[in-house]
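Troubleshooting entry. Yesterday's outputs looked truncated, so today I'm pasting the complete records for two proteins to confirm everything comes through intact. If either block looks cut off, that's the bug. Protein one:
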Amino acid sequence: MNIPEILNAIKTSFKANRDIRTCYDYIAMIREGTKNEKSVKTAIAHGRWLSDYLGRLVPRLCDVEMMRDFFKAHEELLYTLAPYDFDSYCLYLEWDRAPEQKFYAPRRKQLKPLAIQLQRLYEDELDLLCISLPPGIGKSTLAFFFLTWWGGNVPDKGMLTVSHNASFIKGAYEQILKIVGKDSEYRFLKVFPTSPVVNTDAKNYMIDLENEQRFATFQFSTIGAGNAGRVRAQSLLYCDDLISGMDVALSEDRLQSLWSTYTGDLLQRKIGRCKELHISTRWSLRDICGRLQDRYGEDDRAEFIEVDCYDADGNSNFDYPYNLGYTTEALQRLEQDMDEATFSALYRNRPIEREGQLYAEVELRRYFELPENEPDAIIAICDTKDKGKDFEFMPVAYQYGNDYYLEDCVCNDGKPEAVEAMLVNLLMKHKVQMCQFESNSAGGRIAEKIQGAVKERGGRTKITTKYTTANKETKIIVNSPWVKEHVLFKDKSVVGNNREYKRMLSFLTSYTLKGKNAHDDVPDGMAMLALYAQSLTSNNIEVFKRPF
């Protein structure tokens, strides 16, 4: 019987009897499997399964002795996996720290998907990994853990960490040294006993593991610091926030200068098949991650990860235990205090091009409540979801004279059945009188389905369809003046927790005339609303008294 077969047999037995001796037999065979190149991946997969199983089992045990036994077994398992599995390394590294002082364990639910991608970078499944997350959620510290894991495994090939910020470089050097140092509270040396610190250079920010070498295991530098001949990235080039802030992001010249420094200096420090990791705020479509995505976005060996501060339900993605991260309420306060563009870039990782921004936030007309009198009409349009990352967009506008108050909307990329139900509910809720669907692609079919559902519920909405042949970008641009002049949007203070409305405003103000747009559904839909509203009023006949 070979190792994979033995592992499967022990797993079956352990699931049946949940015996501590069987558990240790399982761990011993996992350890044996990691020593064999043919079985190492299978062994690690079993180890990951057992680790997750024990993580769930231990807190539920009532027998104190059994709890202690399985807790120790889990520790032994993580020790076995740590050199091979980055997620296990992060857990084992802080095993001796108090729960509230640990970095990774309280954040593991959110950071584990990133840890998996970092492992892919190490295992040569990727050449480039770009990660964009909100500030203060632990992305840089996770990178420091990753550097120490990589350095422990490959101490003889130098890694280069670069940032715009000298204080960050100093802090990174100190944190790495704290993790790998001899008297550390971390368990680095238990995982990598043959990779101790042998040399440090606090002036030039360098740390050598195992042996002194020309280019240290860990090297740190600010971008543009004259690195020729001083540093080399042999295994990994790690770039952390190369843009200093909004002032750089808003300057085409400074963005171009930064790109030139990156290509002309940093890339020249790479040797051989050196990997590349970027962790940054997505300030601009023309920042370094944006340009890399333009070049390598379709490449299987490149991965680009952008995580919103909000989940699909409008709740915080980063509400960690022990009052860490951000509560939903804290994010909402930040969003209320900041302008749309800055919040979207910093916390939602939606780059904003203020130069070339078609709908600047200050240009939008706002209102706090609808006028007291009855509206002249209540209309809507629907820009149906086509494919991929498209969003279904339906704004509802209350007409008062020449003004259109955008009272509510659906802006969603969910499953078709769920989104269609939202469309019906929106039309019924606001008693929309007339609505036009774009009939391109599946729009005609959806319109017919929505019309039937509205009639079935006793609604009054008359739905029509229109096939669009105009160039989308041209349509968006030429109709934007009408939108700015005639459409009023809710003030931020009264939008509340309406995530559809917030998403709509974010997509509208992020549309740029320069560079690519990730989401153009809302500005396209607003152009459609402009054309529909004008078509309804252009045929009006005005009766007046003869002037002579």
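Protein two, checking that the full record survives here as well:
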Amino acid sequence: MNFDEFKNKLLIYKNYNFEELKIIEKAFYFGERAYNGIKRLNGEPYFNHCLRTALNLASLKADFQTIAAGILHDVLEERNIENDILKKEFGEEIYFLVEGVTKVGLLKYKNKNLVQAENIRKLILAMIKDIRVAFIKLADRLDNMQTLQYLSPEKQKRIALETADIYVPLANRLGIGKWAGELDDLAFKYLDPETYKFLEDEIRKRIGDGEDYLKKIKEIVEKEIKNKNINLIKTDYRVKKIASIYKKLQRKNFDLEQIYDLLAMRIIVSTVEECYLVLGIVHSLFKPIKSEFNDYIAFPKPNGYQSLHTTVITTEGKTIEFQIRTEEMHWNNEYGVAAYFAYSDFKQKKGYKKGAVSIASEEELNLFKKLTNSDDNLSEIITEKIYVLTPKGDVIELPQGSTPLDFAYKIHSYLGNHFAFAKVNQKIVPIDYQLKNGDLVEIITAKNRKPSLDWLNFVKSSNARKKIKSVLKKLNPVFQQSQIEEIKIIAKDRVGLLKDITEVISSKKINIVSNKSKTKNGLAYLSFKVQSPSKQTTYALKETIKNKIKDIIKIE
């Protein structure tokens, strides 16, 4: 495919301007040179995969930076292009997107269990600072799944399992229902080919000339809608995907007779009011099945999906599901957060200026702006947790604020108890370094190293604290009868205040583990962690400090 052919396909989805096309063209020729002579297993040029990935993104009406990054998404990992070269050629933003996709590609789904899969999904969301990275990765995976037949059966199953466990839920979480459905169906086809083929044959028997029949029903419904002067934007129909049917069968005791939506029709209109008018028309033409009606407009699904769903029995005795929605709902349902791209494109058209319905809601737009802000990131969605990597690529969940020592104890007690130092992203860091999402952590041990009391000052996880205390109790009999208590003090600031307080604590033969202090507006704010035999002893110590140091305003 030459650039003119690629450009023509691109412009079907979105009208990129001259300057934007120049950047896309530059990415095209850069990628073409990088992949020159490289072929896939089916014999086609590898570069074709990069172009199809970009076209998948264009179907979302993605911006030109995302298209360029889609073309170049593999160059850092597969072709060893230097980071600085890519940044110099295409600027910080496109480089940032490509680098983000490369980082996500390093994650390994090795344990093959749902907990690990969920951790990887959370890490993908948490480590990327721009949601477009997730779009590119999903577009890449979609093309890989569409060409999976050329790989060995072993690789087919491995990639299909990873797709089903990680990328289908990720697409659903981002609201990109169209891609989620196709990825799910392709994965099921390779994970359980016998069941897939059986269901495919059974469905074919049941629906027969289903698509021809749907075409006939479409004409009847469209005629009636137009007679009512309703602004009909689009009507389409489809046969339900095999994977979706299989999941529904699991809830219906595997009885195909209980699946009423093998055939489905989607009707798109302008307004919410028209959705309910069309619902009335459908129910006047065909008999509805009472138990198969859902109002997702009044009661949206958790991911924001909105539509009216009703299943009817036609005069010929066939069941058909109707999905009725506005154009705005349709874009949000199919493309989720990615509907922002369509929104941006739509704003440039005359229809927008005349006050026509926009393709993405303000709520969706605000979410996208938040997610694409380089000062924020998606870790806000993952509250109080971070996700880091072992040297083997396993994803480890830890509390926010965790240190390499927390990581060490999470992996194994031996690593924690004999901790010498840690490397994060191949650089040595302090023992109290706070880990971030996506950090690659390596622990170096020494046999003669043992836990220290001051480790309790900075470890975050209860698991690490428990294991450190357990060893300390064995090593130090005094510790068995002691506990760490914190004393917070606010006092009038003066010279010698800290010295006077520490002398009072020491006079009671209580060890100070650590202390912190700061001053502001003539006040001193002090915090002491002390090794106290009991809470009663700590209380008595506070009273003694309060009585002996007259400058104290508050102690707790």
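Both blocks look complete. Sanity check on protein two: The chain has four domains: 3-190, 201-336, 385-475, 481-555.
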